[in-house]
Amino acid sequence: MPEVIFNGPAGRLEGRYQPSKEKSAPIALILHPHPQFGGTMNNQIVYQLFYMFQKRGFTTLRFNFRGIGRSQGEFDHGAGELSDAASALDWVQSLHPDSKTCWVAGYSFGSWIGMQLLMRRPEIEGFMSIAPQPNTYDFSFLAPCPSSGLIISGEADKVAPEKDVNGLVEKLKTQKGILITHRTVPAANHFFNGQVETLMGECEDYLDRRLNGELVPEPAAKRIR
Q1: Is residue 218, in this structure, part of any structural domain at all?
Q2: Cβ neighbourhood burial of 216 (10 Å; 0-12, 13-18, 19+)
Q3: Is Lipoprotein included in the keywords of this UniProt record (predicted)?
Q4: Which tens digits make up the pLDDT trace of 59-68?
Q5: Is it the case that residue 136 has pLDDT exceeding 70?
């Protein structure tokens, strides 16, 4: 998997990139956990997500947010990191102009950035939000959430308690025209210690079902004239 350096808004960004053999293959962008708490693109879950999409023929990119590894700049509390993610998507799209759709998958802090990117980019047709933290970050921008996706968290997550994640899911589920799938990994903590295999099994199952044309939202009810 080639190492890449591309231009971001605060300097160069370091990534790992795997193009698909198909010119029109969808793109997958993977976003890592909090930069100030040890999050990097080499996080085990981020790596496994990258490999999962790559194995299914996606053009796949993961990268380090500003200030991490060889990425230039300093931590910017989310605003700059969102700009980094947008630049990363711009960069991979510039290499793959025939790719019409993409997915974004983020873990922890990365899931918050990914959901914000989703609001700005209509070509994102699916998302995976792993261990989001609605108790820490404001998700009220999801009004409405434009795409169907998976929200998955650990049952024993003390960083993002189950009741807070459930509240976010219930809010999103009231929206018409999209389908939010929610999975809880039994006994798993925020880091999915000893449970990464179970987590990835759920993510793979979800992605395969979406790619097979399953998990389609119900059409909005037609008005009677």
Answers
A1: no
A2: exposed
A3: no
A4: 999 999 999 9
A5: yes
Q: Do the domain assignments include residue 18?
A: yes
Nearest Cα to Cα of residue 154 among 114, 193, 127: 193
**Separation of alpha carbons 30 and 200, rounded Å:** 14
Whether residue 46 contacts residue 14, with contact meaning beta carbons closer than 8 Å, is answered with no
- Find out whether 25 and 58 touch, Cβ atoms under 8 Å: yes
The identity of residue 110, as a single letter, is: G
Q: In what order do the strands lie in the sheet with 3-8?
A: 3-8, 11-18, 59-63, 27-31, 102-107, 124-130, 149-154, 180-185
Instruction: Determine the structural domain holding residue 160 and report its residue range.
Output: 3-212
Q: Is 221 among the domain residues?
A: no
Q: What is the pLDDT of residues 188-217, one digit of tens each?
A: 999 999 999 999 999 999 999 999 999 988
d(CA 89, CA 104): 10
pLDDT tens-digit profile of 153-177?
999 999 999 999 999 999 999 888 9
Q: Per the domain annotation, does 201 fall within a domain?
A: yes
**Mean pLDDT for the chain?**
95
Number of domains the chain contains: 1
